[in-house]
Structure formats: C-alpha cells, structure tokens
Amino acid sequence: MVDVILKANSEQGLINRNIYGHFSEHLGRCIYEGLWVGKDSPIPNTEGIRNDVLTALQKLNIPVLRWPGGCFADEYHWKDGVGPLSERARMINTNWGGVEENNHFGTHEFLRLCELLGTEPYISGNVGSGTVHEMQQWVEYITFDGESPMANWRKENGREQPWKLTYFGVGNENWGCGGNMRAEYYADEYRRYATYVRNYSDNQIYKIACGPNEDNYHWTEVLMREAGQHMNGLSLHYYTLPTGVWQDKGESTGFDDQAWFQTLKRTLHMEELIVKHSEIMDKYDPDCKVGLIIDEWGTWYNVEPGTNPGFLYQQNTMRDALVAGINLNLFNRYNKRVQMANLAQIVNVLQALVLTEGERMLLTPTYHVFDMYQVHMDAQRLELNYESPGYTLGEDTIPQLSLSASRSKDRVIHVTACNLSHTDELEVVCQLEAVESSSVSGRILHHADFGAFNTFEDPSRVEPVEWKGVTLANQELRFVLPPASVGVIAVQG
Ligand code: AHR
C-alpha cells in the first residue's frame, strides 16, 4: 500500500493544453493513407481527409499538431505543395523509404485538417536545405491579411482569408538530419532565419528553435546563451527504445518482462532530461519565458516484420499505454517549463494513436490514455506527496507508481495513475486535503496480458472500462491499481 497526500489548495500553475499535442510527418503511411486518402477515394472522406480517423481524433480535442516533419521538414519546399494537385511537383522522400511524394497534401490541406480537428497548427520550417526567403514567404502566404505577392497567390489558390498560425519551428534536428550543424553554427542560423519569421497583420508567431537530442546539454547551453533572447521555445527530442540501441531496438509485441521493465526504466529517464535541460534554461531565463517543447517523444521499436523499414510502422500494446501515461504525468509535473509536447506520431508511425489498414482503423492503447488524460488540459496542477514503492526485476529497481493530479475549471479534481509493475497490484490511499467532495468515479485501462494490443480483427481487446472499487469516504480516496495499468479518477468538488 502507498499513502498519498493530495493538497487541493496548493495550485502549482496551469498545465498547458499543448502538452497533449501530436505530430504528423510525411513518413510512411502517416499522411497518405492514415490521414489523407484524397477526394476520389472509396474510403469515406471530408475533402480528402478520411472520416473514421478524423472522428476518432476529434474526440481527443487535440490542442496542437506539428507538421510536415521531422527530418522531412528540412527537405520540404512548401511551394511544391500548393496550387492544383495535378500541377504539384513530385519529389523523392529520401529520409523515409525513398518513395515518391506527390505533394497532394500541402499547406492548404494541413490547415484544413487543423480546422476540422479544432487544433492549432505547428509548422516546422526548412533550415537545412531551404532559404531564409522561402521561410519568410511561407509565413507571409499563410498569415498576411492584405495585398502582397504571397497573400495574392494564396487567394488565387482558393483561400481568401489568412489563417492564424502561432507555432513555427525554425528547423528540425539541425544537429542531425536537418544539416548536421554544430550548436554554435545553428545558433547563428537560427537568429538569421528567425528574424524573417515575421508577425504579419495581427498574427503573433511563437518561434521554436531546434533544441537538443536527449542529453546533449552543450546544445542547450549554446542555444540559450547565443539565441535565447530570440526564441519562445526550445525543442527536446527523446525516444524510448527498449534496448537503448538503434541497430536493434526491440520488438513492439511478444516481449518479455525484461523488455517491459527496461522500456519503462528508459521512459523514466525523461525526468532527468527535463530537469537538467531546465537547469540550463533557468540560468539564462530565470523567469521561464522560453518553453521547453518536447516535440518528439514516444516508443521506437523495430518495424513490424514485412513492412518497409523506412515507414516506421509498429504495433502498440499496454506497454505503450504505460509509456504514454508516465510521460504525460511527468510533463504535467514540470508544467512550469514544459509548454508543449508532441507524441511521435499521430497515425501509422511509431507510437501512433490510430492504425489503419485499407478502409479499416483501430484505436491503440495509447489513444485511450490520451483520451483519459485530456482532463488535465488547461487545469491547475495540484501537489501530490508520496513515496512510491519500488518495482524490482533482477537487480534493478524503479518506482512502481506514477501519479499526477489537477483541478479543472469546473473544480473537478482528476488523478491519473500508472502501475508500472507487471506482476503486483497496488493499493493507494490518498488523503484529499481541503476537499469537500461528494462523489467519485474512474476509468481504468488494463489487460491480464501486459503485451495485449488491438488488431483489425479484434479492435476492442484493450479498452478502458469503468473502474469499480474506487471509494471516497472522510476525505480519503482509495483505489487498487491492477498490474500494468493506467487509470483516471474524477472527484467532484
Ligand atoms: O519521428 C521520426 C523521426 O525521428 C523524425 O523525422 C526526426 O525528427 C526524428 O529523428
């Protein structure tokens, strides 16, 4: 059993809704097939965007969606993706499988998708192989309200009014696929490119600089020192690989308890990365004006057997649900510095929310975690005091419990909880200080098999259910987390 104290009057600041953001790249079957099937497809669609996926994603109230990459962004030339489809230039997607990219999904289509989802767009610009002028013109094309060469071209292409665009990334992974730059060189490039990412009309851009990979603290130091004054956000990328080795990352299904344990242990490493990068940011930005934007995170396994290695298609099990739950609890906890996070990726790629096969679609365990956790968006984080019991496998021990709590605008307290142990249930007794509550309810995502996943034949094998046995009496909340589970509890004030 573990004792927890939840201080309901200890407001720890708002959890930025953008922590629940997503990422869509021109990679494998994420855009084409996953989101976009085209207007003439037999798959039911709205202006080319498939309806089943759209409906599923609408339910998550996705706050922000990143596009067009990823590595793809630094080879993407946006002008190839506007105008009549038949006239759009074709290119080879050299990063991802060497397949042809016909540019049928471009700026207009992406921004329409965002409108249909009710989500804010986050566009990544091309620093690696693009020009300053090209980047400047893209922002002008999207946001300028009036007569200008780019605004007029937008109108000719069918969009009279400008779009609102807040989030703009100045390059992606410029330490790697985005140009193999040194931090010192990129910091100067960032300053130059970012100068011309202008606020047209009344549109205000939040500029995001390419940040470090994993524990590259030197990158953060240099960027904050040389360019911190010119940015609103600095990105961080960290993926969870079960083995920690890129050449053989581990399988997405059929794993053993060691792989389970190691995956969760590597997920918990995210906390050290947030803390250490934040310490550097604090030095240059003590008022926390620059957000830490974790715009790529999630599991990365060996691809599914028989699929294109460049398409990064993988299954998604209860283990992914735990990875999502743990990471989201961490992002909530560091809500002062973490202002956005984008799971990689939204459909059919890496730790996807949704998988498709032809006209069929399934929701992954990760989808259900995002559904359960959406109650934290824009809520006040509440302080939790507890000491987690250890979860031991062999000689190694990690915490068994991951928790997060917040109070929504309508004063409902939500607690999200993960039990990392694949064998032991965990009873939690939570004292709710300063809460006059009347009722409690919960939902739990759990399966007797920790490797369980949904298939196109059996899409409802892993689904959240009502969490029976959650009780509330005399300001004491009690619940039992089954092994390998993620739960959410609502306490009505
Ligand atoms: O998400 C897949 C790839 O991972 C992205 O394109 C890149 O930014 C990262 O290396």
Automatic annotation (TrEMBL):
<comment type="similarity">
    <text>Belongs to the glycosyl hydrolase 51 family.</text>
</comment>
<dbReference type="GO" id="GO:0000272">
    <property type="term" value="P:polysaccharide catabolic process"/>
</dbReference>
<dbReference type="InterPro" id="IPR010720">
    <property type="entry name" value="Alpha-L-AF_C"/>
</dbReference>
<keyword id="KW-0119">Carbohydrate metabolism</keyword>
<keyword id="KW-0326">Glycosidase</keyword>
<comment type="subunit">
    <text>Homohexamer; trimer of dimers.</text>
</comment>
<dbReference type="GO" id="GO:0046556">
    <property type="term" value="F:alpha-L-arabinofuranosidase activity"/>
</dbReference>
<comment type="pathway">
    <text>Glycan metabolism.</text>
</comment>
<feature type="domain" description="Alpha-L-arabinofuranosidase C-terminal">
    <location>
        <begin position="295"/>
        <end position="485"/>
    </location>
</feature>
<dbReference type="GO" id="GO:0042823">
    <property type="term" value="P:pyridoxal phosphate biosynthetic process"/>
</dbReference>
<dbReference type="InterPro" id="IPR013780">
    <property type="entry name" value="Glyco_hydro_b"/>
</dbReference>
<dbReference type="InterPro" id="IPR002161">
    <property type="entry name" value="PdxT/SNO"/>
</dbReference>
<protein>
    <recommendedName>
        <fullName>non-reducing end alpha-L-arabinofuranosidase</fullName>
        <ecNumber>3.2.1.55</ecNumber>
    </recommendedName>
</protein>
<dbReference type="Pfam" id="PF22848">
    <property type="entry name" value="ASD1_dom"/>
</dbReference>
<dbReference type="Pfam" id="PF06964">
    <property type="entry name" value="Alpha-L-AF_C"/>
</dbReference>
<dbReference type="GO" id="GO:0004359">
    <property type="term" value="F:glutaminase activity"/>
</dbReference>
<dbReference type="InterPro" id="IPR017853">
    <property type="entry name" value="GH"/>
</dbReference>
<keyword id="KW-0378">Hydrolase</keyword>
<dbReference type="GO" id="GO:0046373">
    <property type="term" value="P:L-arabinose metabolic process"/>
</dbReference>
<dbReference type="InterPro" id="IPR055235">
    <property type="entry name" value="ASD1_cat"/>
</dbReference>
